[in-house]
Amino acid sequence: MSKSPVFEFLLLLLFIVIAFASNATVSTAIPQRFKEAPQFYNSPDCPVIVDGDESDGGQGSSILCSDQAVHVAMTLDTAYIRGSMAAILSVLQHSSCPQNIAFHFVASAASNASILRATISSSFPYLNFKVYSFDDASVSRLISTSIRSALDCPLNYARSYLASLLPLCVRRVVYLDSDLVLVDDIAKLAATPLGDDSVLAAPEHCNANFTAYFTPTFWSNPSLSLTFANRKPCYFNTGVMVIDLDRWRDGDYTTKIEEWMELQKRMRIYELGSLPPFLLVFAGNIVPVDHRWNQHGLGGDNFRGLCRDLHPGPVSLLHWSGKGKPWARLDANRPCPLDALWAPYDLLQTPFALDS
């Protein structure tokens, strides 16, 4: 009995689907498509940085090592790529010298870096950037489960390894999470004075209940709780930081953070992902930055992601830390009021978008 053309077509389609599925882990294609962003130009008083040849898929090899550039570090993955694209656009749009910004993207070694690189280049053809590979295995063995699974992603810990991932010529960097947008010139934040010996600067929140970030096991152990003796520790969010990488390298702070993570594997001293080790090493010893540079918590808490209002005062950076992300709430047609401030930076190419 001969097979019908319809049956043969369906059989062929089935083989194609099976072949695609078997290679899905290799290609790790990004399902979204993004629009090309406008090109942004320096104002006349910006310093001129002589550009070099393209390097590793990014542009501007000279600027990637220049002390005159503003260096920005971010992680890059398929799950948060939409947020990353919005963050990049916001940085460029509000910068007085956008051509003098060098982006350093850290991606998991298990990801398809060429696809991530092509996605960035497609929307930002003139961006000065490089993608660095982060070996998940280097930190996976140290990660303890936290209150939200997203916080346990190895890439979430990459901020602790920037000093070794980025070239030695990068001496200072602004680290940014992917769930934020700037509405001010990032050069102002990057120029934060770090004094004679401080390693990093970030907005501090001394009204927060600092003891809540560690377990009773930690506070009941005198040898541990004395960690903060002679310090006035305050909570700070690690999604926005200015870091002196030279001082970080000299002090071997990655090792100090890893030592606390190793202790956490033996005895539960905290619950919240990559934040507590930073607090243990740096809280009370950072340069405080105006709160306007991290209006955080707009994603709600780590459980329900409820809507929140802005903190009182001026705003230079909006940060959707917490469970709720603006793109997810907008797609679900359940946005919070402040998600409307993120939407103008969304470069997602919708199926129904018409070229004007």
UniProtKB/TrEMBL annotation:
| Name recorded for this polypeptide | Hexosyltransferase
Origin superkingdom: Eukaryota
- This protein's record includes keyword Glycosyltransferase: yes
Query: What InterPro entries does the database record attribute to this sequence?
Result: Glyco_trans_8 (IPR002495), Glycosyltrans_8_dom-fam (IPR050748), Nucleotide-diphossugar_trans (IPR029044)
What PANTHER family does the database record attribute to this sequence?
GALACTURONOSYLTRANSFERASE-LIKE 1-RELATED (PTHR13778:SF16), GLYCOSYLTRANSFERASE 8 DOMAIN-CONTAINING PROTEIN (PTHR13778)
Protein's UniProt keywords contain Membrane: yes
Gene Ontology CC: Golgi apparatus
Q: What is its EC number?
A: 2.4.1.-
Q: Where in the cell is it found?
A: Endomembrane system
Query: Which segment of the chain is annotated as a signal peptide?
Result: 1-21
State any single GO MF term. Answer: glycosyltransferase activity
Annotated family: Belongs to the glycosyltransferase 8 family.
Q: In which pathway does it act?
A: Glycan metabolism; pectin biosynthesis
Q: What is its main location?
A: membrane
Membrane topology listed for this record: Single-pass type II membrane protein
Q: Which UniProt keywords apply?
A: Glycoprotein, Glycosyltransferase, Membrane, Signal, Signal-anchor, Transferase, Transmembrane, Transmembrane helix
Q: Which Pfam families match?
A: Glyco_transf_8
